[in-house]
Amino acid sequence: MAKRVYELWKGNNIFLCGGRLIFGPDAKSLFVTVSLIVVPVIIFCIFVARHLIHHFPSYNAGYAVLVVAIAFTIYVLILLFLTSARDPGIVPRNSHPPEEEFSYDNSSHTPGLQFPRTKEVTVNGMQVKVKYCDTCMLYRPPRCSHCSICNNCVERFDHHCPWVGQCIGQRNYRFFFMFVSSSTLLCIYVFAMSALHIKFLMDDDYPTVWKAMKHSPAAVALMIYCFVSLWFVGGLTGFHLYLISTNQTTYENFRYRSDSRPNYYNQGCINNFVEVFCTEVKPSRNNFKAFVKEEQQTRAPPVSFRQAPAEEDEPPCGPPRAKVEDDLEIGDDLLKISRRRDFEEVGDEELRSVISENVPGSNSDRV
C-alpha cells in the first residue's frame, strides 16, 4: 500500500491530521507556552477584571475590560498556532546529489567524480556562495540553513524557537513576530489594568498602597509577572523590529556580526517592512499529504563519490568527520561544518561501471 510523504519524511517533525499540521520535535513545549499565557489571564479575569466591571457603569463599559482580555488572549493563541503548526519553509530533499554538478576526474591515481562543496549564485547583482547540504543532498538556497533540531533545510532560516516548538523561517516569520509583539501588548494591558485595580482600591476603603496590595495579592502577582515577562517578549519584539528594518535574520545577525560583509538583502527600512508584512506568503514546497510512488520508496541509496575540496589549499582527502549541520538558537553563535566522506578506492573501469549503473539519468527527481 502506498504511503504518504509525511509517513516517510526523514526530518524530526511531528505530523498531525494526516500531514496537514507539521510541528517540530519539541512540540510538547507548546503546552508550557500556552500555560504561561492562559493561566495569568484566567487569574486576571477572576480576581481583577471582575471587580473593574462595577467601576465603569455607563453603558456597562466595565465588561469591555473582561472582553478585551479574553479576545486578545484568543488572538495570541491563534498566532502561536499559525507559527508552530505550519511548514516554516522546508526545502524538499533530493533522493540523490545533483548530477549536473558532477565532473569526472581522471588525473589522479584514484579517478572519480569531483563534487564541489560550494557554488556561487547571484543575489541582487552580487555573487554569494551557497553550501551543499549532505543530509538533504542539495545546494542550499541563499539565506537557507539546516536546522539540526528539526533536521531540515529551511528557507530564510531565522532560528529554532523552543517556545513555539518550530523553526522560524520564510513562511512563518511574520506570524512569529506578530505573536511576540501581541504577547507584549497583552502583558502591558494586564499590567495596566491590575495597576488600575490597585488605584481604585486606594480610592475606596484602602487609602495606602500597602493596604490595597494586601487586599488584592493576585493583582500584585500579575503586575510582577507581566513586568518580568516584558523584559523577555518586549526585548524580543524590539530586537526583531531592528532585524526587520535592516532585513536580517537572527542567524545572520549572530553569525556575521563580527564580519564587515555587506548586506545584500537590505532594500531600505520601508521596503524591508513591506517585504515581511505586505507580501503574499509563498505556498509550501512540500505536499505532505501526497502519496509516494513505489519506486521512490524502494530506491537504493546513492553511491558515494569523490568530492572536490572546498578550498584550494585543502587536501583532496582526509579522515571522515561526523556530520553536524548549521543551527542557531537565540543567544547561541554556533558554526558547524558538514561532513565529508572518504573517497572510494576503486579502479577506473570498475568505477565507470558503478557510475553507469547507479547515477540516475536526466529524469531523476530534483528540487
Entry keywords:
367 residues; alpha+beta; 2 domains; 9 helices; 11% strand; elongated; disordered C terminus; membrane; acyltransferase; PFA4/ZDH16/20/ERF2-like; transferase
Brief account:
The chain has 9 helices and 11 strands. By secondary structure, it is an alpha+beta fold.
Can you describe this structure?
The longest helix has 31 residues, at 173-203. The protein is built from 9 helices and 11 strands. The relative contact order is 0.16. The strands form 5 sheets. The protein has a 3-stranded antiparallel beta sheet, with no helix packed on it. Strand 10 (159-161) and strand 11 (166-168) form a beta hairpin. With 367 residues, the chain is α+β, with helices and mostly antiparallel strands. It folds into 2 domains: 5-91 and 141-299, no CATH class; 93-139 and 306-367, no CATH class. This is S-acyltransferase. Its EC number is 2.3.1.225. It is found in: Endomembrane system. Belongs to the DHHC palmitoyltransferase family.
